[in-house]
Amino acid sequence: MEEKLKLDPASFEPLPKADDLDNEKIAAPSLTFLQDAWLRLKKNKGAVISLFILIVMFVVAFGSTFFISHDDLIRSAPQYANLPTKIPGIDINGLNGKLKVAGEWVDIYERNGVPSDVHFILGTDYLGRSLAQRIIYGTKISLIVAVAATFFDLLIGVTYGIVSGWKGGKVDTFMQRVIEVISSVPNLVIVVLMLLVLKPGMTSIICALAISSWTTMARMIRAETLSLKNQEYVLAARTLGESPHKIAWKHLVPNLSSIIIIQTMYTIPGAIFFEAFLSFIGIGISAPQTSLGVLLNDGQKSFQFLTYQMWYPAIVLCVLMISFNLLGDGLRDAFDPKTRR
Amino acid sequence: MRKYLLKRIFYMILTLFLVATLTFFLMKLMPGTPFTNQQKMTAEQIQIVNEQYGLNKPIWQQYLLYLAGMVHGDFGTSFQFSNQPVSYLIASRIGASAQLGVQAMIFGVFFGIIIGSVAAINRNTWIDTTATVLSIIGKSVPNFVLAVLLQYYIALKLGWLPVADWNGFVYTILPTIALGVGPLAETSRFVRTGMVDVLNSDYIELARAKGLSKFGIVYHHALRNSLIPLVTLIGPYTVALMTGSMVIENIFSIPGIGEQFVKSITTNDYPTIMGVTMLFSTGLVLVILLTDIIYGIIDPRIRLTGGSGE
Amino acid sequence: MKLGKYAKLGAVVALSSLVLTACGSKDNDKTAGNVVNWDESGELPGMDLSKATDQISFTMLGNTMEGLYRIGKDSKVEPGLAKKTEVSKDGKVYTFTLRKGTKWSNGDKVTAQDFVYSWRRTVDPKTASQYAYFFNGIKNADKIIEGKLPVDQLGIKADGEDKLVVTLERPIPYFKLLMGFPVFFPQSKAAVDKFGDKYGTASKYMVYNGPFKLEGWTGTNLSWKLQKNDKYWDKKAVKLDAVNYKVNKSSTTAYNQYKSGELDASPLSNEQAKQLKNQKDFVEREGAAVAYLQFNQDSKDATMKAAMSNKKIRQAISMSINRKSLSKVIGSGARVPKGMVPDKLANLNGKDFVEMDPVVNGIKHDDKEAKKLWSEGLKEIGQKELTFSILGDDTDGSKKITETLQSQIESTLPGAHVTVQNVPFKTRLQRCDTGNFDTVISIWGADYADPISCLEIMESTNGQNAGHWANSEFDKYINLSRTVDANNPTKRWDDLVKAQKVLLDDQGVAPIYQQASAWVVNPKVKDLVYNAAGLNYNWKNAYIEK
What we know:
The complex is a heterotrimer. Chain A is about 65% helix and about 0% strand.
């Protein structure tokens, strides 16, 4: 029964010195928090695709500034009005300049006597302006609104949250009451009041968002600051006499970054939706400027005849919103240690 | 509890007072009068109308009168309708909006819970993936786009439901769906996340060990605990429904308060704007208070001490 | 476990509430008999005819009430409550004999007293009627509105129950036409007193004496009904049982309802109109309003004053406007104007005013001529170039117009620099009043189907004449039409035709478009009367072809 333990004398030889250290070595390269999150984000296919789509959209929308001038947007070409999609070389009904009129496919380009070398990839609107150009410009406006809203979210929300959480006591109570008051007014009401005082347009939409959108961010930042405040390293910094500004900037902000990034990802689609909504009901951006909301509103007016005029901007808007939502989810999973598996 | 309630109600009134004051002075900054035909009226007539509307008094008096009136539910006379008090306008319009809002909320939450639970139980299967994709899409498609599409394809092309109008239940189906899809998507995501957490917890393991059926576990244990946090979403849903009602009511020609709000904005009907603003704010403040109380009752872990403080 | 029960309960409540509402649903009552379903773009604001200010109210009043006359096809006067009308030789005293036995919907008799009461109520400054100015010309009306005379001094008297005597300050040639406008309809004092503050705020707080009664209107809702009035004196002529009105604020929804058969008519947006204009149910309705450019001849800026007072410069600006392409830009909301008076507004013996002596000057487009006049004009005022602004409303439509004008003028006239100012409606009116503009786009809608309504606003003393264009010849013709020729229709029209010619030859203003609207209407709806001015729709004789 007894098994003879065979021991090789060699086993008792000490290992070489060099190997000794290697054992303590961590195989994977050491990663910062952000690198770690990035690795996890990369595994999320949806989020990566979304990120890619968003980058492309940003580049195209803002890059278009050099190619699409304001004049292009207002210059009308009635002879090209309401042309459907025509992509040269593709002969699929719906993409070849044909449109279903009373049940039959009719080549609109031919019917309207449009020269054969003229084609619009996404068709044209009622004034003969290229829909593709207008959608790109509209996307740009929507993104500008989103970026501006984010900026105020960060500027006001983060500062407010940090100050409120850091100061504590009476200041904190007062600041929380202010947030409560602001957030119990429906943000649409704030927007409407702003629009009445200012002129409808991008400035007033951004101002209104600036006033109403930062409260959630401020609340979350404050809660996190409250818990960070009592961490040893912050206490240490305080004891060493570091100025509050420096502590906030060096210690708090980096540790708050995940919350900030995730929250931002939810602010952006909200802002985009809001702009589109306001423009759709006619109190947002107005002609000759355009935005996705304006295009949708124009498109729905002739949706019974020219479905593409609403479908295209709708698809772009939805893709934009989906991408931000997916990316937001991906980032949340990436940053949230709970989901780390 | 009582002290907490009193404190909350005090802040509620303070909020509403601030909103009322702000609205009043903003409106006073605006140009415009109650008349559409001012050029064709004599000075005598204009003076008499100004007296009728109380516009000849100094601003601070107008302000006090406005506040006093508001306490009695009097917001003045609408500029759009002749001789129609704003309070009557709101009273006659709120029914449709409330019905639509409640139906959309029930629709969204009810189906949201079902879809969310099904997705959680079948985690990481194609069912889950489909539910997730659908809820992302539901969250991302603006309700006004959805409304236009539903009206055109379901009502006009397929002829299954009436295009618009407000004449009974069949007329409410499309607007309810258009308005309810947002809450539905949000609820299903929320329920799924919550339930996945719960299903991983120890007491569920125990229940499983006891030999409870899968359905029994979900129904008796998981659902309950993952639903509690849903209460906190009622506030945001209310805001979303208020916002959504403005455009959905317009598209489906529903005699509600939301589309009237949009019209009063575009026609500078200041008394109505002020009235509806106060209505929306009061509604939201009440909903927030109620959800906080309900949450305190169903989840004893939350102590009702002081506002949202730590 | 408790929550399990709650959840069950919740589900039951949720489902049953859905079912209950389903049970509570009413059936759509559009199937019965001769019923038309009509679209309206906004709520009905009020039914108090002394206080009404908008077309929807006037249309409903016109169909549920009856005055001395009704306005029929082509703005022809048709008999109403007045059975016999005698006019004094000087045209200043009208004696109306009322039809016997006409009743209000509550059974009361309609008497001459009701007219007296109604008119006095409207001109009473306490009522603050925004249409009281319509009474201008009736004895003492202006002074009463200003509060200088008591209301019983108004030139209207009841002589017994069915005789009405109206005294005018000057002859009003279109007086009968005015009598077809709801402001001059009778009101029941008993009803006004009974309903008090609520009078005219819902269908039940009203009495009716017209072809239809209003039903189902709560004051703020989005649907109501014109129901045939069995107490109407001429009820045999009324063929429809009801007209259901539905408010759709979105033209897409309205058109979808039309397509699905829920509506018999739908207004069209520009885009819809463009797509549908060749269909047989497409209808274009002329509006009663013309938009025109006013030149500020009384500007505080000396150069601007000189420029705008120069006829050649005004003509050059007008000639550089391509009205055809402009109206294309605006779409179905506009058509090329035929002068200062709208097309299809007024006619004499079947001949439309605009066809009497078709205007060519003042509304033609001629780039070459414009260039020539422009350089001559500039030389005359000693300038090399001219920068001026166009003031317009801040609506999307108005922005399109100002932009189009800007590009048309700038690309035609060398040295012309046009700036565009789009301001809110009320600001524009205020800037017109104070003369704070160079050129402004104004829109004037005719109140009644007579050319004078559109021409008198250019009299040198009229408050609407914001540009202060003054022409003694024009004033002379307008005055002639009111005095010497007032009782001679042919001569009077001649005066008005000449007045318009003077106005446009001198380019006192530059008409730019006439308002219009596009509809699709079920072709089976027959004999519905539409008029641009005054009462839009008259349903009295309308019927559905089987």
